[in-house]
Predict the 3D structure of the following.
Amino acid sequence: MKALAIVSGGMDSTVLTYDLVNMGYEVHLMSFNYGQRHKKELDYAKITSNKLRLNHTIVDITHLTGLISKSTLTSDAPVPDGHYAEENMRKTVVPNRNSIMLNIAAGYAVNMGANVLATAVHSGDHYIYPDCRPQFIDALQNLLHIANEGFIADDFKVFAPYVQIPKDGICTAGHQLDVPWLDTWSCYKGEAIHCGSCGTCFQRREAFELAGVEDPTEYLARPHY
């Protein structure tokens, strides 16, 4: 059984990778350079692929960056601080990001005869990211079967095992799988160390705390939630 997983280099997709390997899939990884200011995350995806000896493809779609530059992640505008549940986090939304990536990855998945296209979207993303919600995953599954009729594996599925699970649940799963947390990167600001105050840093810190798992991450600051 083959699985193609989209891996950013963050906590969630790294746990997903270890999870798929543990389930016995032949795992291939795909990452995207879409001009994100925190593209150092791709280095962490590469660390995981090397450590687990997995095939890893990095797709350069920076020619699209100017078309999706409204987000603070693809422009020079400052990344806002705060929790994902706060209104200002809407500034980090990259238009149609997951849909773009998953559709590109789907072409490769069908071409390689994969049974699974895996993504690590989770319930903590539901606040502001429409393409991280169950409705999107279900619609994409239907779309891909229609778009690839006669070529796609009969049992092909878009596998989003954490779509109804909060990030601390993913942290717990990663702890059980012995995921090396220092091999992951979360911070949207993409500087030398995690800032500790942007939305993804908040989520990362909160996940470790709620899961009761030791957080080895070095943060520039630790503002209150």
Summary: The chain is about 35% helix and 10% strand.
